[in-house]
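#lab-general

N.A. 3:47 PM
ok so I finally got the sequence cleaned up, no stray characters, all 192 residues accounted for. can someone with queue access submit it? mine expired

B.Y. 3:52 PM
send it over

N.A. 3:53 PM
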Amino acid sequence: MSGEDARALPVEDARSIAGVPDGFGRFWTPYRMAYIHGEGKPRDASDAQCPFCAAPGKGDEDGLIVHRGRTCFVLMNLFPYNSGHLLVCPYRHVSDYTELTCEERVELGELTATAMRVERETAHPDGFNLGMNQGAIAGAGIAAHLHQHVVPRWGGDANFLPIIAQTKAIPELLEDARARLAAAWPAEGMEK
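B.Y. 4:20 PM
back already:
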């Protein structure tokens, strides 16, 4: 039975598709299997298959790019923790913060601040998580290409799903969030 067929069934019937009904509802997120299996994840700093290196070569919509700067760019996280989860990346394929040039470090910081301002203007979050995981052991999903997370947060946005089901419900499509943020991004030179 396909996923579409299962969605058309009443909840009671959909629960029994995989076996005996157990009283638990299912929140299917098959798109996350690509992340779990590491598809498209570069193996090391020299890997030519890096999704952060590939994104700038695509159109903004296809690459989920919100803004292109001089040395860094901003894009949507393909596997977001929350709606509007952005990544700020240098164009250069470097893995460590200490490898950034002074110009890259400054622009990465400026784009992070602008991302926060644009999120506040368009989505009114109550706070943010900002972070950079350096190395796989520190939690970097793509350790070979440095990226700064900008995660908007709202009161009550965390519930039992991430803890119990290891699943996060995201209420906005990536394409819609990208369009919202890109439309509100200030013109070049107007970031401050």
